[in-house]
């Protein structure tokens, strides 16, 4: 298995700041790097990415996000626990300590045996999905045999996870309705949620012990079921042009009725909600100084030369795009 080191070690080797390494990982400019909690694991053979800011003779390339924002694997790679932190290595040989520490973490975590059987869930996970009795899940639920989750992440990724690979999956739609229908919870704590899923394998020598799954909540929707579904759909398709009819069909109600109840619940129209998401994405892109302001807009599917989103940006942020970038780069 390949060796990994931390972002702090990479920063020392490359002569740059730890914060810069984390940004490079986030931008996907270090092949094979994957996030582990709040840290990054980086292949030991990875080379320092070139800094486009120092290449004055060439224009920075436009970074365009994928056309589809549907759930997809981020990375699939082996992890060498010897290159991770000493506390993680200590957990391998001390199951009791393992569970005690993981139970204190605020990150929702569930652990699965190599055969797919759930063997542990921490307190944060139980609170997130409104579980009151882990005995309803632990020792009974098998992830590999769950057709709902299998349909979401696919057979290939499921096989990789239980072969002992470190994998990550973005925009995982939490199957809360299925959990409720199976009787594992008495009441849904929320209507819908999207999360990033990180599966970290634990190895003891050549023996695959278990897969620890970390869940990072990105969006959580409460209240009216139809509106929650609509907001989730808009969040996942923010790069596409907004289509009221298509969104209403997804929810399963007429467009005029849908627009009315959305306005009543959210105090804004579906279009205004969609535009708000666009502005948030543009703000994120403007933090990337390798992109020009025009490229940041284009990466979000917006024409910088148009007046609509320029006006909306200033209305929502109180600043022009250049003022926003300048203020947030200090």
Task: Give a brief description.
By secondary structure, the chain is α+β, with helices and mostly antiparallel strands.
Secondary-structure-derived class: alpha+beta
> Low-confidence runs (pLDDT<50, min 5 residues)?
53-89
For the record, what is the CATH homologous superfamily label of the largest domain? PAS domain
Task: Indicate the CATH class of the largest domain.
Answer: Alpha Beta
Largest sheet: 6 strands, antiparallel
How would you describe the overall organization of this protein?
The chain has 330 residues and is α+β, with helices and mostly antiparallel strands. The protein has three domains: 4-44; 72-221, Beta-Lactamase, CATH 3.30.450.20; 225-328, Arc Repressor Mutant, subunit A (Orthogonal Bundle), CATH 1.10.10. It has 15 helices and nine strands. The strands form two sheets. The chain has a six-stranded antiparallel β-sheet with strand order 4-7-8-9-5-6, sandwiched between helices. A three-stranded antiparallel β-sheet has the order 1-3-2. Helix 1 (7-14) crosses helix 2 (18-26) and helix 9 (225-236) packs across helix 10 (244-251). The longest helix is centred in the C-terminal third of the chain and has 17 residues, at 270-286. The protein starts with a strand and ends with a helix. The model is unreliable at 53-89 (pLDDT under 50).
């Amino acid at each position: 298995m390949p060796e990994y080191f931390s972002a702090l070690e990479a920063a020392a080797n490359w002569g740059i700041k730890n914060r810069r390494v984390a940004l490079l990982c986030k931008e996907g400019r270090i092949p094979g790097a994957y996030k582990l909690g709040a840290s990054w694991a980086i292949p030991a053979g990875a080379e320092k990415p070139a800094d486009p800011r120092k290449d004055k003779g060439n224009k920075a390339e436009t970074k365009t996000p994928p056309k589809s924002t549907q759930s997809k694997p981020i990375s699939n790679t082996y992890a060498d626990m010897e290159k991770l932190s000493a506390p993680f290595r200590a957990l391998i040989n001390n199951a009791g300590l393992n569970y005690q520490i993981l139970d204190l973490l605020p990150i929702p975590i569930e652990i699965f045996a190599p055969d797919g059987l759930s063997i542990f869930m921490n307190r944060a996970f139980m609170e997130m999905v409104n579980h009151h009795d882990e005995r309803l899940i632990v020792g009974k639920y098998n992830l590999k045999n769950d057709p709902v989750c299998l349909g979401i992440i696919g057979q290939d990724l499921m096989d990789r996870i239980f072969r002992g690979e470190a994998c990550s999956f973005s925009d995982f739609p939490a199957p809360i309705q299925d959990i409720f229908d199976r009787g594992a919870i008495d009441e849904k704590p929320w209507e819908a949620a999207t999360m990033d899923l990180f599966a970290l394998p634990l190895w003891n020598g050549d023996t695959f012990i278990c897969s620890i799954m970390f869940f990072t909540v990105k969006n959580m929707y409460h209240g009216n079921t139809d509106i929650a579904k609509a907001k989730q759909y808009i969040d996942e398709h923010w790069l596409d042009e907004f289509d009221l009819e298509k969104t209403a069909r997804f929810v399963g109600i007429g467009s005029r009725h849908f627009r009315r109840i959305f306005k009543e619940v959210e105090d804004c129209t579906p279009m205004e909600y969609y535009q708000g998401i666009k502005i948030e994405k543009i703000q994120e892109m403007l933090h990337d100084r390798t992109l020009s302001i025009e490229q940041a807009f284009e990466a979000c599917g917006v024409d910088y030369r148009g007046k609509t989103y320029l006006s909306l940006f200033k209305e929502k942020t109180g600043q022009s795009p250049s003022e926003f970038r300048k203020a947030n780069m200090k």
